[in-house]
Amino acid sequence: MAYFTSNGTKLYYEVSGEGEPIIFTHGASWNHRQWEEQVACFQDKYQVVTWDVRGHGHSTLPEGKVDSEDFSRDLAALMDHLRLPKANLVGLSMGGHISLQTAIRYPDKVSRLVLIGTPCSNSFNWYERLFVPINRFSSRWLPVKTSASLQAKMLSKNNPANYAYIFKAFSMIPHDNLIRIWSAVTRMESKHDLHRVKCPTLLLIGDQDTMTNYQQEHMRKQIADAELKVIPNAHHATNLDNPAAVNEAIQAFIRNK
């Protein structure tokens, strides 16, 4: 088990294979194991890095309010720790937003960007402006295992095998940590910074992902060198629902130099 320290936090990571680096960043309440199918696919030709975002999986979380800016700082620090001047970044949902903000804040570190079911804002429309604060408040009162079960059920309809992984990963997070993490994640905003992304960008969205699909066309238009591809038979847990299609899309995108 490999760790390094960033901004007062002990962060867990794994490295497989050699070659051009690809760093995968998981969704909120999940962990590095989200990417097992991608590691298996890419490790023969690439250096594949997976990690646990602060407060998730095996990574720690300092006391006090979580600063969402630390997420991208941690990813940049991971690259420095591994002596990677530049890498391809792949992320889903929160992990996509972290990767997006890394490309905005550290443009020289990012070769290509793959954003899967990724939001650029948590106040994109009136629905989010109403629902997100309610969701943030309700997270304080729901037990972790209840929240874990609800999320796992919702995101395992396409692939029943998702349930066990999502429930276990979610349940690893102590309730106080979950509240603080979710507060930070739901305050991440990049809607007005999309023009600052300078690298080629691939947007992937599951054809059944109703959670972030309405933001994708806006992101495609605002990011200068972006393309949008729909993944069939997939909801928000896109790479778990249809790993073969996701792997094929990532591989074609990275190869297209």
SSE map:
Elements lengths: L1 E5 L2 E8 L3 E6 L10 H7 L3 E6 L17 H13 L5 E6 L1 H12 L4 E7 L9 H13 L5 H11 L7 H10 L3 H11 L15 E6 L6 H10 L3 E6 L6 H4 L1 H13 L2
Helix pairs in contact: 1-10, 2-3, 5-6
Structural features, described:
The protein has a single domain, classed as Alpha/Beta hydrolase fold, catalytic domain (Rossmann fold), CATH 3.40.50. Helix content is 40%, strand content 19%. The protein has helices spanning 36-42, 69-81, 94-105, 126-138, 144-154, 162-171, 175-185, 213-222, 238-241, 243-255; strands at 2-6, 9-16, 20-25, 46-51, 87-92, 110-116, 201-206, 226-231. Strands 1-2-4-3-5-6-7-8 form an 8-stranded mixed beta sheet, with helices on both faces.
Features:
single chain, 257 residues, alpha/beta, Rossmann fold, 8-stranded mixed sheet, 10 helices, globular
The CATH architecture name reads 3-Layer(aba) Sandwich
Strand order of the largest sheet: 1-2-4-3-5-6-7-8
| CATH domain topology | Rossmann fold
Residue share in β-strands: 15-25%
As residue ranges, the low-confidence spans are none
What is the helix content?
Answer: 40-55%
Shape descriptor reads globular
- What's the level 1 CATH class? Alpha Beta
Tally of helical segments = 10
Total number of β-strand segments? 8
First CA to last CA: what distance?
A: 34 Å
The named CATH superfamily: Alpha/Beta hydrolase fold, catalytic domain
Give the C-alpha Rg.
Answer: 17 Å
- Major sheet details: 8 strands, mixed
What's the mean pLDDT score?
94
- The count of domains is 1
The SSE order reads EEEHEHEHEHHHHEHEHH
Structural class: alpha/beta
